[in-house]
Amino acid sequence: MLNAQQHSSNPQSDYRKLVASLPGMYIVMLPDAPHFTIVDCNSDLFRITKRRPEEVIGKPLFEAFPDNPDHPEANGVKNLLRSLLVVMETKSPHTMAIQRYDVKNEKGIFEERYWNPINYPVLDDAGNILYVINQGEDVTELIRTKQVNEKLERMETEVYIRAREIQEVNEKLRSAEAKYRGLFESAQDAIVVLDKWGKIKFVNHQTIHQFGYTEEELVNRDVELLVPERLKKSHLAFRLTYFDNPIPKHIGERQVELCGLHKDGHEFPISVTLSPLLTREGLWITAIIRDISETKRLMAESIHAREDIIATVSHDLKNPLSSIVGNVALLTKFNNKQTDPDPKLEKIIHGLQKAAGQMTSLIQNLLDFSKLEAKCFVVNKNPQNVSDIVQGVTQIFEPLAWDKKIKLTVSVEPNLPILNCDNLCVNRVLSNLLSNAIKFTPKGGSIEVQVKKDIESIVFMVKDNGPGISEEEIEHVFDRYWQSKRTAIKGTGLGLAIVKGIIDAHDGYVWVECKVGVGSAFYFTLPLNASATTELESFH
Length: 540
Known about the structure:
By secondary structure, the protein is an alpha+beta fold. It has four domains: 14-138, PAS domain (Beta-Lactamase, 2-Layer Sandwich), CATH 3.30.450.20; 187-291, Beta-Lactamase (2-Layer Sandwich); 295-374, Helix Hairpins (Orthogonal Bundle), CATH 1.10.287; 378-540, 2-Layer Sandwich (Heat Shock Protein 90). It has helices at residues 2-7, 11-21, 43-49, 61-64, 76-90, 140-186, 205-211, 215-218, 229-244, 293-337, 343-373, 386-403, 423-440, 471-474, 495-505; strands at 25-29, 38-41, 94-95, 99-100, 103-104, 110-111, 114-123, 129-138, 190-194, 200-203, 249-251, 259-261, 267-279, 282-291, 378-380, 382-384, 407-412, 419-421, 446-453, 457-464, 509-515, 519-527, 533-535. Helix content is 45%, strand content 23%. It catalyses: ATP + protein L-histidine = ADP + protein N-phospho-L-histidine.
């Protein structure tokens, strides 16, 4: 008993030693809610919070340990106060969820901390609360480890999802590549893909068949390998220009001669369709190359057959026409010798002359068109007096204009320079334009022919006050076989196409300006510095 009495002779000292030695963090508080003044703490609290006893003991709990003002979502004070009030009300322990409750270090800077707290009362024999104790376990490292693990799990999940997405994309790419490769290889035309330097990057099987090279012999070689020597310079210039404005383009069938060069040295005609291709390496070009040898052969046969037909038809028409013209001349001579010419016969003769003129014009148009189509139309230019050409044509058409009471006005600028042109061809151009003007101008209308000098050319105009041409139809007026749907007057549809062909052969320009209900004005120019002979290279 003596030892027991000696041991408990100083219970306050024993209590403090007991609290100080408890593992974990303990805070002993008075039940003076809402202050909860701190009366004691154990050594772990001072060690963990880096606080000195005089900074804590005797102070209200939330003054000693406030919320972190830099943490906008801090709620440690609120949650701890709520738990302490529950203890005060129930006089029972209350376990809190793990809380974030930042504390200051020795430098006064808040550090992020997480705690696993429990609050419980100390009761006297009467059941009154003497003290409230907060026991807290510092679980910061555990929480951080958990957060890291959760982050790693999320990252692993994201990596897995991303890997699946990449796998799916790769599968789609492989499928698309296989499909593209199948189309690429099954194409009936040669397909050549080249980079901006003109190096061949890919070819299909048809390219190998068409040009005679192996794939290894073509890849990373200049595309000019497939071009004849005489065309390499122009091909290179075109390729460099194309990269400045890379748009889908088709060339080689009519306007421009293109030839491919086989490995064995023989050339063959081709057409090429170009398309830009944007890749990770930059802009590439896809060239679809078609061997048009068979097309050219069939076209040549067709043109030859058409020439034979037109030549035969023209010959068969010319013979009876010559007979008609001769007989009309005899009838005219006979009627003129009569003392009293028969007016009915004069009318018949006039009708025959008109029909013969139309037939002659039709035959000439057929012959001209045949030559233009065959690309063998040649204009023989000689020094000509423009005024004489215009006067000769208008005199022929004056009677036709008078028949419809059309006023025909001719205006030729005086002192025009001598023009180097094909007299017969220019005559046919003016004849076609005047014939159309008279055909479409109503009775009592007017037609104006005007010729004047421009800077480097002579400008011709034939203007009428007929029905005009709509904007939709203007772009087709020089097409072969085209005829307006707005008029009942029909023809062969070749006249204006021939006009354009002849003017092109003279290196001139032809165009039309018109307004529906007002009339049309056809213009063409002939250059003053023209060469002596020109062969039409293309007619389309």
